[in-house]
Amino acid sequence: MIASPLFLFAQVNPAFKAIKPRFRVIMDNDFGGDPDGLFALTHLVLSPSVEVRGIIGSHLNANDGFDKSKTQADNAVKKAAELLTVLKMKDRFPLVAGSNTAMVNDTSPVKSAAVDLIIKEASRTDTSLPLYILCGAGLTEIASAVLTDPKIADKVTLVWIGGPEYLDIAIPPPNYSNPEYNLNIDIAAARAVFNHSQLKLWQIPRDGYRQAILPWSELHTKIKPQGETGKYLADVLESLMLRIQQYKLNLGEVYILGDSPLVLLTALQSSFEADPSSSEYVLKPCPLINAQGGYEYNAHGRNIRVYRRLDINLMFNDFFAKLELNR
Predict the structure, then answer these.
(1) How far apart are CA 167 and CA 47, in angstroms?
(2) Peptide bond connecting 172 to the previous residue in cis, omega within 30 degrees of 0
(3) Cys bridge to 73: 28, 97, 218, 220, which one at CB 3.0-4.6 A?
């Protein structure tokens, strides 16, 4: 395997070489859908402070325009593998498919290699590194894992991009979708996680992830020039832009890379008293998710973190620098 420039830089720079993983992570994402997951995956695997223990390709909503096939999770794996090949990291991480369908209800888990991977990693006793499950789509796999083996619930932290705004602290955007996009991928799984589990949950709802705005000017000046990887990522986004224009949609001059906060809140935690200290959250009682995908107040819900303000400058500047070092 050819060593990346980032790896070579680490070997000659004593301070950088000293960086060791502080956390274990498993990324679960619909890589066959919105390309923001591919940007987040690139950032994650270039971050030396996390030990990537698995990558899961997950399904979309059955009616999603990105992929209306019956093999959405399998297609997501293929797309992630394509990216890892560009990064010269093929076969470096376990890469498995989740279920191609949503849960039938909030108490019946699906079976998949992804569920087995989560349970196996969460059940390890040979490491003290905390485990984060990073979900940038639906919650099918983590919900199914906890339903299958409830003992793992207190052994992981779930970081989830998804869910609508909390109306006491945020206002929905104009013409907002209801249910929220990621929650709507598998409402039953969201109900299993919120209503029935005791998972430690860090949530980045829609008003949070919509802050991760990348201007096209930076796509072309900070990402596209950065070797094969930068060109690959830019081409994916530009191809999507051309497809969207066929439907007379005007996205302006920016794109939301809504899954990238998964990296910000893990790999980029503070040096001392490790925590995502440059981003802001509130503690809220975990709400109940109703059958329509909305929140219902639950006075007895466990406390969850709801991230309100994200350090987008840190997140994107780190991403740009790592792309340049990996060129």
Answers:
(1) 35
(2) no
(3) 97
CB 40 within 8 A of CB 262: yes
- Reduced to 3 states (helix: H, G, I; strand: E, B; else coil), residue 54 is strand
Residue type, 274: A
**Looking at residue 116, which CATH number applies to its domain?**
3.90.245.10
Say whether pTM exceeds 0.85: yes
Considering the chain, what is the average pLDDT of its residues?
95
Joined together, the tokens standing for residue 254 give 């920016």
Please answer whether residues 149 and 123 qualify as being in contact, where contact means their C-beta atoms are separated by less than 8 angstroms.
yes
Is residue 32 within 8 A of residue 66, CB to CB? The reply is yes
Kindly tell me if the per-residue pLDDT of 2 is higher than 50: no
Residue-number span of the structural domain to which 177 is assigned: 20-215+258-313
What is the number of other CB atoms lying within 10 angstroms of the CB of residue 9? 13
Task: Give the C-alpha distances (Å, rounded to integers) separating 150 from 34, 53, 87, 138, 255.
Answer: 31, 20, 36, 19, 38
Q: What angle, 0 to 180 degrees and rounded to 10, lies between the N-to-C axes of helices 72-86 and 36-45?
A: 50
- Please report how many Cα atoms fall inside a 13 Å half-sphere around the Cα of residue 327, on the Cβ side: 14
- Which of 172, 175, 174, 111 is closest to 147 using CA atoms? 111
Q: Which value, in Å, is the radius of gyration of the alpha carbons in the chain?
A: 19
Pairing of strands 23-29, 131-135: parallel
Helix axes 5-12, 312-325, angle to 10 degrees: 90
Q: Above 50 in pLDDT, residue 87? A: yes
- Provide the number of structural domains found in the chain: 1
